[in-house]
C-alpha cells in the first residue's frame, strides 16, 4: 500500500502550488476605482448562477461518494473530494459577489474552482493504469501503466510552477516584466493542455492496439472503460482549450469579460466529465474483467 500514496501526495502538492499561482496571477490586476472582483473578472458575478452550479456539483459529489463507498474504491477518493471542493468554490462566489473587495473570500473561491480539475485529470490517469494492468496487457501502453499517474501528475505540477512564475512576473510594475509574465503564464497553460492531449493519445493508442489484436471492445466486460475514459477526457479537454483561448485574449478579452462562458465552457464540461463516472463507475468493469492470475497492483 506504500506506493499508493505517491500519486495522491503529488495531487496535494499540485493543489498547493496552484494556490500560489492563483494568488499571484489573479489578485494583482486590481485597478483604481474598481473592486477587486470587477478588476479581475470584468463583470459582477451572478449569485443565482453560482448557487445553481454549486448545487449541481454538490449533488454530483454525493453521488460520487455513494459510488465510491459502495464499491470500496478508495483509489478514486480524489474525484468526489475534488468535486466537493469545487461545489464550495461556486457557493463562495455568492459572498464574493456581496463582498467584492474581500481578498480572503476571493482567494478561497479562486482556490476551490481553479484547482479541483487537477484531481479530475488525476483520476483518469489512475484509471488508465489500473485498466491496462488489470484488464488487458502492459504491452498496449507506451508508458509503464504503473507510472502513468506519477508522470502526468508531475507534468501538471510542473506546469503549475510555470504558471506561478508567470503570475509572479505579472506583479511587476515594469511593462516588460508584466508582458513576459503573461506570456509565461500562457505558455504554462498551453504545456498543460498539450500534456493532457498526450494522455488522450496514450489512451487512443492503447484502444487502437487492442482493436488491432482482434478484440471486440463492445463485447468485452472492460469495454466501457475505454469509452468513459475518452469521453470524460474529451470533456476536460474542452475546458483546457477554453482556458488557453481565454488567457490568450488577455485581461480584457471577450471570454474573460462574459461570465456565461465560464459556466458553459469551463464548469459544464467538467461537470459532464465527472458525472460520467456516476453513471459508469469503473470498479465493476475492472473487477468483472480482471485477468486471472494477474498480480493485483497496489500502486495507485
Automatic annotation (TrEMBL):
Residues 1-22 form the signal peptide. The chain crosses the membrane at residues 49-70, 77-98, 148-165, 185-204, 225-245, 260-281. Pfam families: RTA1. It comes from the Eukaryota. It is a multi-pass membrane protein. InterPro entries: RTA1 (IPR007568). It is found in: Membrane. One of its GO terms (cellular component) is membrane. This is RTA1 like protein-domain-containing protein. It comes from Suillus subaureus. The lineage of its organism: Eukaryota, Fungi, Dikarya, Basidiomycota, Agaricomycotina.
Amino acid at each position: 500500500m506504500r506506493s499508493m500514496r505517491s500519486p495522491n501526495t503529488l495531487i496535494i502538492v499540485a493543489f498547493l502550488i496552484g494556490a500560489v499561482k492563483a494568488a499571484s496571477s489573479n489578485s494583482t490586476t486590481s485597478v483604481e476605482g474598481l473592486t477587486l472582483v470587477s478588476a479581475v473578472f470584468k463583470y459582477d458575478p451572478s449569485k443565482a448562477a453560482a448557487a445553481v452550479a454549486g448545487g449541481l456539483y454538490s449533488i454530483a459529489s454525493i453521488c460520487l461518494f455513494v459510488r465510491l463507498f459502495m464499491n470500496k474504491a478508495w483509489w478514486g477518493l480524489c474525484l468526489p473530494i475534488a468535486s466537493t471542493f469545487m461545489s464550495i468554490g461556486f457557493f463562495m462566489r455568492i459572498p464574493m459577489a456581496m463582498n467584492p473587495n474581500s481578498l480572503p473570500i476571493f482567494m478561497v473561491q479562486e482556490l476551490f474552482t481553479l484547482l479541483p480539475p487537477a484531481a479530475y485529470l488525476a483520476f483518469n490517469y489512475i484509471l488508465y493504469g489500473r485498466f491496462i494492468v488489470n484488464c488487458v496487457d502492459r504491452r498496449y501502453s507506451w508508458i509503464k501503466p504503473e507510472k502513468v499517474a506519477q508522470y502526468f501528475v508531475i507534468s501538471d505540477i510542473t506546469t503549475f510552477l510555470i504558471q506561478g512564475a508567470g503570475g509572479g512576473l505579472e506583479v511587476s510594475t515594469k511593462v516588460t516584466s508584466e508582458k513576459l509574465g503573461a506570456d509565461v503564464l500562457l505558455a504554462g497553460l498551453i504545456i498543460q493542455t498539450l500534456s493532457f492531449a498526450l494522455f488522450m493519445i496514450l489512451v487512443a493508442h492503447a484502444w487502437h492496439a487492442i482493436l488491432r489484436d482482434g478484440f471486440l471492445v463492445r463485447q468485452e466486460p472492460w469495454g466501457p472503460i475505454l469509452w468513459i475514459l475518452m469521453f470524460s477526457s474529451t470533456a476536460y479537454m474542452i475546458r483546457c482549450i477554453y482556458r488557453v483561448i481565454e488567457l490568450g485574449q488577455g485581461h480584457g478579452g471577450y471570454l474573460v469579460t462574459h461570465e456565461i462562458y465560464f459556466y458553459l465552457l469551463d464548469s459544464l464540461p467538467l461537470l459532464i466529465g465527472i458525472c460520467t463516472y456516476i453513471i459508469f463507475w469503473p470498479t465493476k468493469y475492472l473487477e468483472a474483467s480482471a485477468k486471472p492470475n494477474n498480480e493485483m497492483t497496489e500502486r495507485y
